[in-house]
Amino acid sequence: SQQGEEDPQALSIQEGENATMNCSYKTSINNLQWYRQNSGRGLVHLILIRSNEREKHSGRLRVTLDTSKKSSSLLITASRAADTASYFCASFQGAQKLVFGQGTRLTINP
Amino acid sequence: GAGVSQSPSNKVTEKGKDVELRCDPISGHTALYWYRQSLGQGLEFLIYFQGNSAPDKSGLPSDRFSAERTGGSVSTLTIQRTQQEDSAVYLCASSPGTRYNEQFFGPGTRLTVL
Question: Average pLDDT of chain A?
Answer without folding.
Answer: 90
